[in-house]
Amino acid sequence: MKRWWVLAVLVLLSGCREVRVKTYAVGTTTVPGGDQIVVVRDRASLEHLGIKAAVRFRGEFGVVLLMGPHDRTGYRQIIESIRASDERVRVVAFEEPPADGGEPTQPYRTYTLWIVPNTVYRSGIAVDVVTPSDRPIAQSALP
Fold first, then answer.
1. What is d(CA 106, CA 31) in angstroms, rounded to the nearest whole number?
2. Of the residues 27, 35, 77, 99, which has the maximum number of CB atoms within 10 A of its CB?
3. 8 A C-beta contact, residue 137 and residue 129
4. CA trace torsion 39, 43, 48, 54 (10° rounding)
5. Distance (Å, rounded) from C-alpha 140 to C-alpha 31?
6. Spatial separation of the C-alpha atoms in residues 2 and 108, rounded to whole Å
7. Which pLDDT score is estimated for 142?
8. Which of 66, 57, 70 has its CA nearest to residue 27?
9. Model pTM greater than 0.85?
Protein backbone atom coordinates (compact mmCIF):
# COMPACT_ATOMS: atom_id res chain seq x y z
CA MET A 1 0.00 0.00 0.00
CA LYS A 2 1.52 3.29 -1.04
CA ARG A 3 1.45 5.98 1.60
CA TRP A 4 2.89 9.13 0.16
CA TRP A 5 1.70 11.38 2.94
CA VAL A 6 5.01 10.81 4.66
CA LEU A 7 6.69 13.34 2.43
CA ALA A 8 3.94 15.80 3.22
CA VAL A 9 5.26 15.69 6.73
CA LEU A 10 8.58 16.75 5.33
CA VAL A 11 6.83 19.81 3.89
CA LEU A 12 5.84 20.86 7.34
CA LEU A 13 9.35 20.24 8.56
CA SER A 14 10.81 22.83 6.27
CA GLY A 15 7.85 25.19 6.63
CA CYS A 16 7.24 28.11 8.97
CA ARG A 17 7.86 26.40 12.27
CA GLU A 18 11.00 24.57 13.19
CA VAL A 19 10.52 20.81 13.09
CA ARG A 20 13.24 18.23 13.31
CA VAL A 21 13.31 15.60 10.60
CA LYS A 22 16.21 13.24 10.73
CA THR A 23 17.59 11.20 7.89
CA TYR A 24 17.94 8.18 10.07
CA ALA A 25 19.11 5.44 7.75
CA VAL A 26 20.09 4.68 4.19
CA GLY A 27 20.67 1.26 2.73
CA THR A 28 19.21 -1.55 0.68
CA THR A 29 16.36 -4.00 1.07
CA THR A 30 15.40 -7.13 -0.84
CA VAL A 31 11.66 -6.46 -0.59
CA PRO A 32 10.31 -6.57 -4.17
CA GLY A 33 8.67 -3.58 -5.85
CA GLY A 34 9.50 -0.34 -7.60
CA ASP A 35 9.88 3.33 -6.75
CA GLN A 36 7.57 4.36 -3.92
CA ILE A 37 7.14 6.32 -0.72
CA VAL A 38 5.92 4.40 2.32
CA VAL A 39 4.77 5.83 5.64
CA VAL A 40 5.50 3.49 8.53
CA ARG A 41 3.60 3.89 11.78
CA ASP A 42 4.65 0.69 13.58
CA ARG A 43 7.57 -1.68 13.91
CA ALA A 44 5.87 -4.48 11.95
CA SER A 45 5.47 -2.22 8.88
CA LEU A 46 9.11 -1.22 9.07
CA GLU A 47 10.29 -4.82 9.42
CA HIS A 48 8.04 -5.82 6.48
CA LEU A 49 10.22 -3.50 4.36
CA GLY A 50 13.33 -5.30 5.61
CA ILE A 51 14.53 -2.26 7.58
CA LYS A 52 15.69 -2.37 11.18
CA ALA A 53 15.69 1.04 12.89
CA ALA A 54 14.99 2.46 16.33
CA VAL A 55 11.89 4.55 15.68
CA ARG A 56 9.86 5.69 18.70
CA PHE A 57 6.43 5.20 17.17
CA ARG A 58 4.58 6.83 20.09
CA GLY A 59 5.86 10.29 19.12
CA GLU A 60 7.17 9.89 15.59
CA PHE A 61 6.77 7.95 12.39
CA GLY A 62 8.97 6.96 9.51
CA VAL A 63 8.90 7.91 5.85
CA VAL A 64 10.76 5.61 3.49
CA LEU A 65 11.71 6.42 -0.10
CA LEU A 66 12.29 3.14 -1.95
CA MET A 67 13.91 3.12 -5.39
CA GLY A 68 14.84 0.30 -7.71
CA PRO A 69 14.95 -2.64 -8.25
CA HIS A 70 18.55 -3.24 -9.27
CA ASP A 71 20.41 -6.43 -10.22
CA ARG A 72 23.96 -5.05 -9.84
CA THR A 73 25.62 -4.09 -6.56
CA GLY A 74 26.60 -0.55 -5.62
CA TYR A 75 23.57 1.68 -6.26
CA ARG A 76 22.87 4.40 -3.70
CA GLN A 77 20.28 7.14 -3.26
CA ILE A 78 21.15 10.82 -3.35
CA ILE A 79 18.64 13.26 -1.86
CA GLU A 80 19.40 16.58 -3.50
CA SER A 81 16.73 18.68 -1.77
CA ILE A 82 13.48 18.67 0.17
CA ARG A 83 11.28 21.74 -0.18
CA ALA A 84 7.99 22.17 1.60
CA SER A 85 5.11 24.60 1.70
CA ASP A 86 1.67 24.52 3.26
CA GLU A 87 0.31 22.67 0.21
CA ARG A 88 3.16 20.59 -1.21
CA VAL A 89 6.37 18.72 -0.42
CA ARG A 90 8.86 18.32 -3.25
CA VAL A 91 11.78 15.93 -2.92
CA VAL A 92 14.52 15.93 -5.55
CA ALA A 93 16.29 12.56 -5.54
CA PHE A 94 18.15 10.17 -7.78
CA GLU A 95 20.18 7.00 -7.62
CA GLU A 96 23.87 6.93 -8.35
CA PRO A 97 25.06 3.80 -10.18
CA PRO A 98 28.25 2.06 -9.10
CA ALA A 99 31.39 3.60 -10.62
CA ASP A 100 32.84 0.17 -11.39
CA GLY A 101 29.62 -1.23 -12.89
CA GLY A 102 28.90 -3.40 -9.85
CA GLU A 103 28.61 -7.16 -9.61
CA PRO A 104 25.55 -9.27 -10.45
CA THR A 105 23.30 -9.81 -7.43
CA GLN A 106 19.76 -10.70 -6.40
CA PRO A 107 17.26 -7.86 -7.01
CA TYR A 108 17.24 -5.17 -4.33
CA ARG A 109 16.02 -1.62 -3.77
CA THR A 110 17.74 1.33 -2.14
CA TYR A 111 16.04 3.28 0.64
CA THR A 112 16.26 6.44 2.70
CA LEU A 113 14.39 6.51 6.02
CA TRP A 114 13.34 9.82 7.58
CA ILE A 115 12.05 10.08 11.14
CA VAL A 116 9.28 12.69 11.49
CA PRO A 117 7.42 13.94 14.60
CA ASN A 118 3.71 13.02 14.69
CA THR A 119 2.83 16.66 15.33
CA VAL A 120 3.50 17.77 11.72
CA TYR A 121 0.96 15.61 9.89
CA ARG A 122 -1.61 17.53 7.79
CA SER A 123 -4.15 15.85 5.54
CA GLY A 124 -4.26 16.80 1.84
CA ILE A 125 -0.66 17.86 1.35
CA ALA A 126 0.73 16.77 -2.03
CA VAL A 127 4.05 14.94 -2.10
CA ASP A 128 6.14 14.79 -5.25
CA VAL A 129 9.46 13.01 -5.74
CA VAL A 130 11.30 14.02 -8.90
CA THR A 131 14.73 13.67 -10.45
CA PRO A 132 17.03 16.71 -10.82
CA SER A 133 15.79 16.95 -14.43
CA ASP A 134 12.20 17.13 -13.08
CA ARG A 135 11.18 13.61 -14.20
CA PRO A 136 8.53 12.25 -11.81
CA ILE A 137 9.56 9.33 -9.61
CA ALA A 138 6.57 9.14 -7.28
CA GLN A 139 3.68 11.32 -6.15
CA SER A 140 0.81 11.21 -3.71
CA ALA A 141 -1.15 13.23 -1.19
CA LEU A 142 -1.57 12.79 2.53
CA PRO A 143 -4.93 11.17 3.25
1. 11
2. 77
3. yes
4. 90
5. 21
6. 18
7. 62
8. 66
9. no
Cα→Cα distances 130→6, 46, 58, 92, Å: 15, 24, 31, 5
pLDDT of residue 14: 47
C-alpha 7/C-alpha 22 separation (Å) is 13
Q: How far apart are CA 128 and CA 135, in angstroms?
A: 10
Q: How far apart are CA 46 and CA 55, in angstroms?
A: 9
Q: In which band, very low, low, confident or very high, does the pLDDT at 5 lie, cut at 50, 70 and 90? A: very low
H-helix segments, the chain: 5-13, 43-48
CB neighbours of 47 closer than 8 A, spacing ≥ 6?
A: none
Task: Write down the pLDDT at residue 12.
Answer: 45
List the one residue out of 71, 18, 27 whose CA is nearest residue 49: 27
